[in-house]
Design goal:
The structure is a homodimer of 476-residue chains.
Chain A lengths: L11 H11 L3 E3 L6 E3 L1 H20 L3 E2 L5 E3 H4 L3 H7 L4 E6 L2 E9 L4 H11 L8 E10 L13 E11 L2 H21 L6 E4 L11 E8 L5 E9 L3 H6 L2 E3 L5 E3 L1 E8 L1 H10 L16 E5 L4 H19 L4 E3 L6 H10 L4 E5 L1 H6 L1 E6 L8 E5 L3 H26 L1 E2 L4 H9 L2 E6 L3 H11 L2 E6 L7 E2 L6 E2 L1 E6 L3
Parallel strand pairs in A: 3-7, 15-16, 15-17, 20-21
Antiparallel strand pairs in A: 1-2, 4-6, 5-6, 7-8, 8-14, 9-10, 9-22, 10-11, 11-14, 12-13, 17-18, 18-19, 21-25, 22-25, 23-24
Helix pairs in contact in A: 2-6
Amino acid sequence: MAEKLTPRGEDFSKWYNEIVQRAELADYSPVRGSMVIRPYGYSLWEAVHDGLDRRFKATGHQNAYFPLFIPMSFLQKEKEHVEGFSPELAVVTIAGGEQLEEPLVVRPTSETIIGYMYAQWIKSYRDLPVLINCWNNVVRWELRTRLFLRTAEFLWQEGHTAHATEEEADAETLRMLDVYTDFAQNDAAIPVIPGRKSETEKFAGAVRSYTIEAMMGDKKALQSGTSHFLGQNFAKAFEIKFLDKNNELQYAWTTSWGMSTRIIGGIIMVHGDDQGLRLPPKMAPIQVVIVPIFKSDAEKARVMPVVEQMRELLGDTVRVKVDEREETPGFKFNDWEMRGVPVRMEVGPKDVDKGSVVLARRDIPGREGKAFVPQAGIADAVRDLLAKIQSNMLKQATEFRDANLREPKTYDEFKAAVDDGFARAWWCSEKQCEAEIKDDTKATTRCIPLEQPGGSGTCIHCGKPASEIAIFAKAY
Amino acid sequence: MAEKLTPRGEDFSKWYNEIVQRAELADYSPVRGSMVIRPYGYSLWEAVHDGLDRRFKATGHQNAYFPLFIPMSFLQKEKEHVEGFSPELAVVTIAGGEQLEEPLVVRPTSETIIGYMYAQWIKSYRDLPVLINCWNNVVRWELRTRLFLRTAEFLWQEGHTAHATEEEADAETLRMLDVYTDFAQNDAAIPVIPGRKSETEKFAGAVRSYTIEAMMGDKKALQSGTSHFLGQNFAKAFEIKFLDKNNELQYAWTTSWGMSTRIIGGIIMVHGDDQGLRLPPKMAPIQVVIVPIFKSDAEKARVMPVVEQMRELLGDTVRVKVDEREETPGFKFNDWEMRGVPVRMEVGPKDVDKGSVVLARRDIPGREGKAFVPQAGIADAVRDLLAKIQSNMLKQATEFRDANLREPKTYDEFKAAVDDGFARAWWCSEKQCEAEIKDDTKATTRCIPLEQPGGSGTCIHCGKPASEIAIFAKAY
C-alpha cells in the first residue's frame, strides 16, 4: 500500500507538494521554474477553461491570439508597466542563427502588443467596444517557484477590452470580476472576497485593480483572479484613438483581466485533506468511480454485468470510470481518494442480490458519507448526490473561511488575527502604514472589499481616520 | 461598397492575402513573421481544436502541457533532430535580468523535453502505452512567412506516444494519420492523399513520416498534417526504458503527430472563390446569417418578428446570427459572402406574406443556389441543407483535385503535369533522382500514397526500376 500523505496540519507545504505529485497533477521539469502539467492536472485546467470560456462568451467576448514575442521597446512605452515587469523578463536575443537587432521579450502579459494592434483596428466609436480574450502561456522569471502557484511559465487567459467611455470600461472591469467570483464559487466551490487592490498591490500600469481573494487550508490568502481598469494609460502609450459621435478624436478606455493555472493550486489547498485531493463535482475529470468487489471468479461473473449496467446508466450524464485494475478494493479506495473523485460506487455480490449499490461521498468521510442506493434510477440519484456534494463543499470552505476571518478591535488583536487567518479592519489607505504592517506581521492588504459597512473608523495600525475596511492576511 | 477582391485566377497569392485581411481572419504583427489571429480566424481554430480533440479523446488520448523552453543540450541529444531544427531556433539567453548559463530554446517541437519526462514516468510495461497530446504554440524562425501558412510562431497540437512494441507504435502512427484524414475530409471538406514522406522530406529524427497532402485552388500542394514513427531514436537519446513482462529492460517505441493553424490556410485556399471565403458548415463559426429586408418602418415591423422567430427556431441546433446593422442588404450579402457563411436567410415582406423565407447557398452561386422554404419546419430544412453543403463542398474539392491530378507516361508529360497540378508516377525512391526532379521542375515528392497499385514500373525521371508510385507537386 502507498505511503500515507504527510498530514496537512503537520506540514502544509509538504502535504501540498505530495498531493500534486501523487495525484499526478504536475511534475517538476528540467527547466528551472517551469512545470509539466500531467494529464489529470491538465483535465482540471480544461474544466477551468470550459467554465470560464462559456461565461466569457455569454458576456459577449470572443477569443483571439496575439504573438508570444513582444519587442522590448513596446514594454518601455508604459512607464509603470515596464518597471513592474522588467525584473522578471525572459529575453530572446538570437533567432534563426543571428543576433536580433531588437531583443524580443517573451510575453509576461500582453497589454502592450494588444494595445499596438487595437490602435490599428479601432478608428471610430462604431468599432467599440472591442471585447477579446486570449488563452495562452506567459513567462515571468520568478526566483522562488511552487507547482501551479508560482511558476516561471504558466497558462492563463488574459482578457483585453477597449471602450468609448470611462463608465463602460469601469463596468466591464467589475463585470469580469463578477464572472470570476461566479466561477470560483459555483464551479470551483471556493468562497472568495471580491475587492479592490491597494495602490501598492495593483497591477503595473493600472488605474485600479480588482481581485478575488480566497482562504487556503493553512489560512493564508490566494489571489485567485484579477481585473484591471487601465483608464487611458495604455491607450495613450499606444495611441488607441477613435472618432466619437461628434467626430472628435478621443483616447479609448481599456481593461484587462486574468485567471491562471494558479487556481488549480487554490482548489487543492482549499479542498484537500489528509487523504488527498477533494474535487468539486463540476471540476472533477472523473465524477464517479465504480469499484467492483468480488473474491472469486464466480462472484466476479455476477458483479461485472451490474457494473457495466451502472456505467451505461450513468454514462450519458456523468463522467464515470470503472476501475478494473487487478488491485485490492482497499488500494483502489485510497487511490481514488487521493485523486479526489467526488463519488465512489461499490458493487459487490450482496449489492447484486439486493438490487442496490453503495455510494460513498468524498466530502463526508466514514460511514456518514455512505449510503445504499437502489440500482433502478441510479442516474438521478447520482446527479442529485453530485449537486449536494458541490454545494456542501462550498459550505465547508465558507464555514472554514468565516471561522478564520476576524474583526480585531486593537492592533494586538490584529496581529494575532493575521498570524492565523484573515483580519478585516479599518485602514487609512496609506502606503507607509501598509508597509509598516507588512514589515511587522508579514501580512499584506489582500483587498478593500466591494462590500463595505459604510461610515468611517480609525486605522487599525496608525489610528488615522479611515473611510474603508480592508482584508489583511499572509498570502501566497 | 467594398472594393472587389483580386480574382483568384489573376493573382492567387494576392487573392489569398486579401481574403485573410478582409474576412478579418488574421493580421500582420509588429514582430517579424508572427501573426495575430483575429476573432473570426480564431473561431476557425476553435473548430479545428474541437474536431480533433474529440477524435483524440475517442482514441484514448489525454491532453497535457510541457514547458515552452527547452535546454539547448536536449536538442543536441538526437543528431538528425538538432540538424533539422537548429537553423530555425529562437533562443532565450537572458532571464530575470541575468545571462543564462545554458541558453533556452523556445520549443520548435517537443520530442526532446517530452522524451526526458517520459524517461522519468515510464518504468514498466504496465506504464505503457502513454498516449498524450498537447495544444500549444511553437516557434520556427522562418525567413519567408505567409499568414497561417508559414509563420515564425504558430499554434498546433503535438501528440507524443510511447509503446512497448514496434507494431503498436507503427499502428498508432497510422491511426493518427487516419484521424487527420477523417477530420480533413469530413469536417474541413478537404480531400487528402494519405501517404509516406520520402527520406528527404521526412521529419528530422523520424524513422518514417506520414502526411496528408491536399490540393489548393492554385493546384499546389499543402502538407496538412503529419504523423511520425520515431522508432527507438528518441527513446535511445533520452533513455526511455521499461521492464517488459520478462523483466528485461527495453527501449520504448515512440510516435509524434501534429496539425497546425496552417490548416486554416488550407481551408481558405481549397474552398475560397472570387467572392471570398467559403466555409464548410462544420467549421463555420456562423452557419446561417439572417438578413432582414425592408424598405420602411412599416415593413420592418412586419419582418422583424419573423426574423426573431426564425432565430429562435434555429438557435438550439445551428450557429445563427441576425445581421441588424444599418447597411443595405446588398452590402450585407457581399460581406457575409466574403466571410464564407454557408447559408444566408433572407426575410422580406413578401416572405412574411407567403410564410416562407429565402435560403441562399454559398457553395452554389446565383439563382441555382436559392430556394423558397416554408417557415414551418425551418430547423429541419436548414439542418438538411447544411449537411448537403458540407458534402457538396467535399465533392467540389474532390472533383477539382481529381481533374488536376495526372498520371504522366513520359517525363515531358510529367513536367507538364507538375507545372499545373499533381502528378502520380512510378518513382525509384532515390534521393539523387528526387533532387534532380526538384531542380528541374520545382516539384517535390509530396508522398508515397498508402494506396498503391501493386506490381512495379520504371521511374518517371531516371528510368530505373520502381516499386512504388509517388505524388509530385509544387508545394507550399
